[in-house]
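Incident log, structure service

09:12 report received: a user says their structure output differs between two submissions of the same chain.
09:20 pulled the input from the user's history:
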Amino acid sequence: MPHRPLFLIALLVSLSGCQLWAPPDEGSRLPAPPFGEYREIQRGLEMRVGDDIHAARARFSLTPDSTHIVITNERDELMVEMRYQQKRLQVRRTPRLPPAISADDLIADLQLALWPLERLRAGLTPGWTLAADDEGRILRFNGATESRVDYQGDEPSSRPLPVYNARRDYLLILSPAAPGA
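09:34 re-ran on a clean worker, output below:
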């Protein structure tokens, strides 16, 4: 039984909350294509699920060909990380992300709020539609609302931005990052 210690170590690691890169959740939306330009973006993030509020920070490192999104809690501990490059998607979710929130939907909701409209529309597959005007965006699947963004003004990057996920019934509030954050 020379392999038994290795099996036990592997079992302990898998039960300790450490999660390896994983494929998208079953039935989730695919991420949008890369942003299309070089950007570094940071936003404060509140996740409201029922009566619970979870504070976090979202960091986006974007290039014309790749997307890297990292979401951490208030103690700077990893909740979710996503890398999308050369049509290869890697999502890592940790137990710090509330169980009611799908990592894939969270990423897609953040992209719905921040990505250029034409990039979002380029990634839609059959059944998905995206309505947009100056007040916000509504993403639907087969006519049912999945997520909604309300811009609440002319300059969405300077004020809190609510994103409601109708399918999973949670609210995200993106806020401008504090100076020096």
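09:41 both user submissions now match this output. Likely a transient worker issue. Closing.
09:42 reviewer note: The CA atoms of residues 32 and 123 lie 5 Å apart. Residues 4-15 form the longest helix (12 residues).
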